[in-house]
Amino acid sequence: MADWSFAFVRRFAGEPPPHTRDQAAGEPAPVMVDVARQRQARHYARQRQRLSLMSMAIPAVVIGILLFSQLGFGLRDALVGTVGWTPLVGWEPLRIAAYFGVLFGVLTILDFPLTYYSGFILPHRYGLATQTVGAWLLDQAKGLALTLPFEVAAVEFVYWLLAAAPETWWLWTGLALLIFTAVLSNLVPVLLLPIFYTLTPLPDGDVKRRTLALAARARTRVRGIYSMNLSAKTTAANAMVTGLGNTRRIVIGDTLLDRYTPDEIEVVVAHELGHQVHHDIPKLIAFSTVVTLGGLFLVNLALHAVVSRVTLYTGLADAATMPLVGAVLGVFGLVTLPLTNGFSRVVERQADAYALETTGKVEAFISAMTRLANQNLAELDPAPLIEFLLYNHPSIGKRLVFARRYAARHPR
Ligand SMILES: [Zn+2]
Q1: What pLDDT was estimated at residue 308?
Q2: Where are the domains of the chain?
Q3: C-alpha distances in Å from residue 125, one per residue of 12, 119, 120, 197
């Protein structure tokens, strides 16, 4: 259930869970998989997959046109007016910024209808979103305002390196990315999350007491446990570990706190605690750095090979190499996506195992997972290929099987 990004906001959501307590008998009735919701979940998943394919096709087509026509060079030459400042031979910061700006603008405008449809229309149609269109647009604007300056700075940095250190630029880029990711991960809960959500320290009470008891048993320290007003944007339940070093903390959505039983919340918190105990955030940062370095090395090979053969390029740091860099990174990202997701699934499975071992509450785990599938419209058993390619968590069906097998191995 841990997500390190804002992606979780868009991923899942759902309607209030079915009535789960038989008040008359005082016995909790088992939470059942909602068959009708599963049918909806399959439709929803298929629509989202189709939309993300279309969303990937847009940059592929634009970059393809720029690469295989003279348009990429045409754009560079048209921006000749921006070449007034060349602090380093081969590096034209203003032309780089302008070229990137045009590419970014075109792709953002072309993709906007899809972003709107998949991010606003579709989740509303399935009863998963609670935002007004104004609030949604404001979030998009905030996200853009936050990321664009960093993207421009990153592009300038890489092109400066391409001019200054044409053989080793990719190593320095990888190193800079590692440092940047570490700093950003540290700042996410204190600077970034509060821009989109209100985080409140969990008040003293049952959940906090249980969490501290779990942490004490694990001989680990919980730096903070917070609730977050997910319900302002979605009906989905979620929780996550976030932060790095002195900011690491467990964050639980109010949608989870309000609707799950204390035992169910405890196993979810134990899962998140498992991520802390296993140091999963540093592990994921290290893993993605290694993968990214591989991609940057391939870009390096491609750049040297193409620029030395095609005389229209003025050098490695020519703005017109941007579509080539984008193409290599795009294909590389797509090919390594199953690898990254596979690593994430392993880490998630270990956190599930930790939650089951440390709480021993298999029934609560099973009912929490079932509730999540119902509420968040999560497909229980997606096609194996889809799960292999796209899932960063094991499917809920697999997590249920895992819990039942655990129970069989550890009879009470
Ligand atoms: Zn997790």
Answers
A1: 96
A2: 30-409
A3: 13, 11, 9, 23
